[in-house]
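Translate structure to sequence.
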């Protein structure tokens, strides 16, 4: 147990807020002489990387493993069907899993094929933005697909996010951990992905708090109508994308932590329970985000309706006030010869005074009742 006591410290980077990150490590450099999709190909024996004069091809790496032991870790980035077919044939990967790995856009899942495990992770990256508006993109998604075998581990990345270079280097710095084999790498990737979810959840929480503050701010009356609804809806769409990455992964992590599997080292398996716990917490946060945004959106729409009702009441109130002089003018504008006070010297000022008093009384009454 001493050799994996510091497992979490090794495979889990410090959780720095994504808002303060200066950039992302894009591991798209490919070694010359290897298939174009291969980012790195290395043999690990007794927890250490076997150094070679030249870059290994997947076939050469697997031949070394079969001859001298250890396991091979191959990293690929967006391979084509032709580029991946040779590797799939070399390692005996199931055609259905190969098809999913090449086409991408898969749901997070865990599948077992004969002597290998196929795991799909969706990576989430928070997009920095100076000001959030209705067209802002909050999260970007990618995919990491893992083939775990007895003596091999293959990762297939899709998208610009989710580089595994730093993770590989951290694992290489801990030979005791790598000596546990491919299952240690699978746990490290799962933990790395879930830690990314936690950081993104914290950043999204800040955006939701900002929108919530603006919606319920007392000084919001002077803001343009309808500016918040688009922002809330956009944020809700991004949270839904986040939810699609998190929720389906919970069951696979529970299976890896609870069900004994031949390809998963027993010492490593217990640590999948920690990953599943963190993932469950993130899932609860994301569900809470969705419900909170529903409430904020409803409150925003209710405020818009209240504002419209207030406008209608004001318009109706002024219409009621204007109706009095309109009626008086309409009556005295009729062409009748005999009308009350028509030829009286003080008729005009008296009628105007009475009209003004009535209008003033209506105005005071409506203002007292909150209509004006």
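Result:
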């Amino acid at each position: 147990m001493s050799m994996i006591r510091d497992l979490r410290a090794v495979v889990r980077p410090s959780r720095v807020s994504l808002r303060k990150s200066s950039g992302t490590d894009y591991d798209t450099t490919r070694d010359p002489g290897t298939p174009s999709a291969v980012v790195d190909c290395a043999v690990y024996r007794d927890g250490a990387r076997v150094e070679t004069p030249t870059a290994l091809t997947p076939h050469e790496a697997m031949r070394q493993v079969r001859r001298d032991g250890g396991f091979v870790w191959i990293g690929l980035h967006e391979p084509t069907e032709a580029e991946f077919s040779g590797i799939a044939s070399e390692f005996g990967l199931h055609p259905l899993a190969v098809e999913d790995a090449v086409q991408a856009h898969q749901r997070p899942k865990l599948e077992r094929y004969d002597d290998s495990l196929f795991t799909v992770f969706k990576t989430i990256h928070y997009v920095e933005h100076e000001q959030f508006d209705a067209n802002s993109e909050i999260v970007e998604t990618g995919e990491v697909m893992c083939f775990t075998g007895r003596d091999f581990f293959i990762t297939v990345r899709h998208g610009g996010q989710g580089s595994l270079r730093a993770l590989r280097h951290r694992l290489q710095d801990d030979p005791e951990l790598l000596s546990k084999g491919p299952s240690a790498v699978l746990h490290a990737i799962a933990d790395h992905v879930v830690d990314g979810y936690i950081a993104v959840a914290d950043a999204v929480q800040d955006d939701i708090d900002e929108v919530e503050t603006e919606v319920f701010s007392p000084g919001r009356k002077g803001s343009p109508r309808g500016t918040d609804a688009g922002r809330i809806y956009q944020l809700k769409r991004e949270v839904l994308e986040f939810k699609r990455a998190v929720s389906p992964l919970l069951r696979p992590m529970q299976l890896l932590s609870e069900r004994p599997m031949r390809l998963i080292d027993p010492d490593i398996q217990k640590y999948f329970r920690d990953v599943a716990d963190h993932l469950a917490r993130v899932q609860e946060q994301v569900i809470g985000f969705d419900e909170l945004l529903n409430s904020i959106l409803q409150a925003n729409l209710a405020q818009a309706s209240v504002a419209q009702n207030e406008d209608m009441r004001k318009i109706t109130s002024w219409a009621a006030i204007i109706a009095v002089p309109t009626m008086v003018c309409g009556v005295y504008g009729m062409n009748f010869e005999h009308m009350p006070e028509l030829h009286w010297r003080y008729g005009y000022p008296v009628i105007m005074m009475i009209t003004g008093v009535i209008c003033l009384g209506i105005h005071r009454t409506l203002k007292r009742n909150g209509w004006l």
